[in-house]
Amino acid sequence: MPNDLPIRKIIHVDMDAFYASVEQMDDPELKGKPLAVGGSSKRGVVSAASYEARKFGVKSAMSGVKARILCPELIFVKPRFDRYHEISRIIRKIFFDYTDLVEPLSLDEAYLDVTENKKGNPSATLIAKDIRNRIFKDVGLTASAGISINKFVAKVASDYNKPNGQKTVTPEEVLGFLEALDIRKFYGVGKVTAERMYQLGIFTGKDLKSKSLEYLDEHFGKSGRYYYHVVRGVHNSEVKPNRTRKSLAAERTFNENLSSEIFMLEKLDHIAEEVSRRLKNSKVTGKTVTLKIKYSDFTLQTRSKTLSYYISDKSMVLETAKGLLYQDSLSNSVRLLGISLSNLNTETTKEPEQKTVSVQLKFDF
């Protein structure tokens, strides 16, 4: 590794099929069966799939109809987000037993910086194993982990031995690990980008590394610089324990398209109530209300209004959303409505500027 890069001991912990695993844990009759959390109707979408369901090709963000075709025996259950939040809080408490540098990405994954840790353990590998054992003992669920010198490599590594496994990539192994990696495994390379890379003859990290910065900038714009650096093991982002929330939202997809604004107002009432609940749970307020409208032809429209004061109360959120609904006529029947609040009061505090330091330490990974 280059000597001028900050070397840290980073663990990325990722729960295994979290929502589905919680449902199987709470209902023993579901264990070992193909399970999908989400809606099974023609408008329903799979939020999470158990590993038994994944064997049939069922995955998150897939329509319930397609999932049922792939796996006729698939069992659908409604999501219970209060329960998932409850379990997530227990897991995060375990993380804080080891370090205060915990950056949650979602309910089921987080980065931990254990370069210096509360256990005084020099081995990030052993810490990750201990954390996974604690989660299984205290919660009853399995987790996977990736351990390396930065967040990018750790996240990629956490997917390497899933489920219920872990992968350590030491400083000496980083470049070889990334060169041999299928480009689809690179965090930040989606399906569309991967197809574009294939067309350019980029199939592995080694292929990506052979391209110049100018070449990647030309073909991938601003992302080109990111790809150029991460394939060389360069990713200086620190674990940020206090990530600033930029927005908070809720939305609903309807079983039938709505053409009457009266019915839409009824739906907006429920959505505004959910947004208000999330705002209060997160103890935040916001000034900018955005109404999201997806029409039956899948075109998307957003309408926003910025107030001169912060709000979190349902009545204020709903009143502003109503005004946005009536702002212009609707161009078609509606299949989805959403409300988001941004310009939050959490954005007043600036994050400290990251500094790159030169370190030459021999780490016990």
Describe the overall structure.
The chain starts with 9 loop residues before the first strand and ends in a 21-residue tail after the last strand. It has helices at 18-26, 51-54, 64-70, 81-96, 124-138, 151-158, 174-180, 191-199, 205-209, 213-220, 222-230, 261-282, 314-325, and strands at residues 10-15, 35-38, 46-49, 75-77, 102-106, 109-113, 143-148, 166-168, 247-258, 286-295, 300-311, 334-344. It is an alpha+beta fold. It has 13 helices and 12 strands. A hairpin with a 4-residue loop joins strand 10 (286-295) and strand 11 (300-311). 36% of the residues lie in helices and 22% in strands. Helix 4 (81-96) packs across helix 5. The strands form 3 sheets. A 5-stranded mixed β-sheet has the order 5-6-1-7-8. A 4-stranded antiparallel β-sheet has the order 9-12-10-11, covered by helices on one side. Among the domains are: 20-79, MutS, DNA mismatch repair protein, domain I; 173-235, Orthogonal Bundle (DNA polymerase, domain 1); 247-348, 2-Layer Sandwich (Dna Ligase, domain 1). The longest helix has 22 residues, at 261-282.
Features:
alpha+beta; 12 strands; MutS, DNA mismatch repair protein, domain I; 5-stranded mixed beta sheet; 365 residues; 4-stranded antiparallel beta sheet; Dna Ligase, domain 1; globular; DNA polymerase, domain 1
Distance between the termini: 15 Å
Rg measurement, Å: 23 Å
- CATH topology of the domain at 247-348, by name, is Dna Ligase, domain 1
> What is the overall silhouette?
globular
Number of helices in the DSSP assignment: 13
Unreliable residue stretches? 349-363
Give average pLDDT, whole number. 89
| Number of distinct beta strands | 12
The amount of helix comes to 25-40%
Instruction: Just name the CATH architecture of the domain at 247-348.
Output: 2-Layer Sandwich
Report strand order across the widest sheet: 5-6-1-7-8
Which class best fits the helix and strand makeup? Answer: alpha+beta
- What pattern of helices and strands is seen along the backbone? EHEEHHEHEEHEHEHHHHHEHEEHE
Pfam families: IMS, IMS_C, IMS_HHH
Organism: Gilvirhabdus luticola
EC number: 2.7.7.7
Cofactor: Mg(2+)
